[in-house]
């Protein structure tokens, strides 16, 4: 007997993010059309449905999370999108195209608006015999970052920059900070931390992994200075570059590196050396004792002489 082949469902959204630069710039009242695609790399034809959802970015700064309900948000985009076709069948190993029409309201607020176009197997659009539930429920999507032209505010602030702990015995040293995005658009800041020693010499530099920070939100960042050992205070300078105009935000902090174990070991060694030297000197100053010296000292004190008892004392 030959086992029946297992059905597989595999969809891929192309591109993962629309726009040549990762965003689409539009004007209020404009209509803009873009095309996205879906690849069926499974082993059977599949009928898909496509739809738009607003999204936010998860705590890791990378993962988009769809907003389940339609919201009237300052950053909403899904209600502006017209998807065509919204349902179609993709043959095996073939790619289907979907047109996305962006109808920008005349009163659209300048700045960022965000949505994703999702694709999933349509109900009854595939044979589920032998297919896993994960595959049947698979969703893939393309992110749309739309920026409406106008008076756009770009402003960000660094919060709580420091090392934890800020007193260490040896490396590595971990630093943290938050970036508060008060802009009208999302930011993907580029940040570096430069380390200087007590003599103002640069001894290290760390490039922080860039993460998306959505408007009105604060995102936590962290990094590691791979120092092995050191001594004294070190000054850390954080420089964050963000926005289309390359604005800069900076912050300073200090970390102390004191190798307590090495210092204690050196002190113990010095005490042992000093004790040894003092003991040696004390032994050299003490005069040597010998048997001859003892005999001589005894002979120097002869016994007392007594009068002869036979002699008669004079009158």
What characteristics describe this protein?
3 helices; mainly beta; Immunoglobulin-like; five-stranded mixed sheet; single chain; 315 residues
Question: Would you write up a description of this structure?
Answer:
A hairpin with a 5-residue loop joins strand 15 (190-196) and strand 16. The protein has three helices and 19 strands. It is mostly beta strands and 315 residues long. Mean pLDDT is 86; it is low at 130-135 and 310-315. The protein has two domains: 11-148, Immunoglobulins (Immunoglobulin-like); 156-257, Immunoglobulin-like (Sandwich), CATH 2.60.40.10. It has helices at residues 133-136, 260-285, 291-299, and strands at 11-14, 24-26, 31-40, 46-53, 55-57, 64-66, 81-84, 87-90, 95-103, 111-121, 140-148, 156-163, 167-168, 173-181, 190-196, 202-208, 218-225, 232-242, 247-257. Helix content is 12%, strand content 42%. The radius of gyration is 42 Å and the shape is elongated. It has a five-stranded mixed sheet with strand order 2-11-10-4-8, with no helix packed on it. The protein has a five-stranded mixed sheet with strand order 13-19-18-15-16, with no helix packed on it. Strands 1-3-9-7 form a four-stranded antiparallel sheet, with no helix packed on it.
